[in-house]
Amino acid sequence: MIAVPDDYPTVFEGSAAHERARALGELRLHTAPGAEDEAELARRIGDAPVAVNIRAYARFTPAVFLACPRLKMISIWGVGTDNVDLAAASRHGVTVCNTPGANAYAVAEHAIALMLAVARRIPQIDRAMKEGGWPRDMLTQLCGKTLGVFGTGSIGTRVAQLGRGLGMEVLEWSARRDTPAAKDDVLRRADVVTLHVRLTPETRDFIGRRELGLMKRGAILVNTGRGALVEREALLDALDGGALAGAGLDVFHDEPLKPDDALLARRNTVLSPHNAGQTPEVRRDGLLLTIENVENFLAGRPTNVVTA
Q1: Prediction pTM value
Q2: Is 233 a catalytic residue?
């Protein structure tokens, strides 16, 4: 039995991955809201040995694992695993898999688009022209500038390639191989910093007040990773005080943003609603890979394992 407890808003129902999952046996699909509630999530999983996780708001906590003793595998649509308590999964013998690379090209393109939109002030110029203006502001050219890429997985690697294509010098930092001193060096030298590290307890507030203080005055920050990678109040202060020229953000501490969120009032931000990977190609390929992980697990050869 496979449970899909959180297909809301629905992307899985009616897809090629849905049909493929049906071939594996009984499928329990939930397309109504409510999986953000711990008890409801556990109820929807029930006695299923496999859960397919579609939405990050469904949080697999120790209580969920305790309530679902027959659960043996979680297959996540996406790369991020911060909604799953991986230590609890290991303690309960649950294998967790994700879909790295499926959204790499789309998210990398979006990161570059945010960089360009901030640097060229496209939203502000578009707004001014539609209000009857003819703005002639000085803009920022990315060719010849230095791009600092934090995270060298499939997305970060692709961003680095695209940055070089724009004529930027690229500095890459990897949590696996590089030191905190190397991180500081990249921050000091980069004109644009883009974040592609996974959110873990160690990377929460990866960019805080100290790190923002190390960056060049007038640098640009781009975040398509997770909102909590950046210390929120420090970011607001840097935007207000001119330490940053601007920020391009696809991810936030609270999603969706509340109508009174302070970021909405900042004119030097370009915001998108955590949709960098929302393309037909990403949806199709990622969902199919999610089910392929289930197939391989059931066949005894698990793939894309985050924790076993």
Answers
A1: 0.87
A2: no
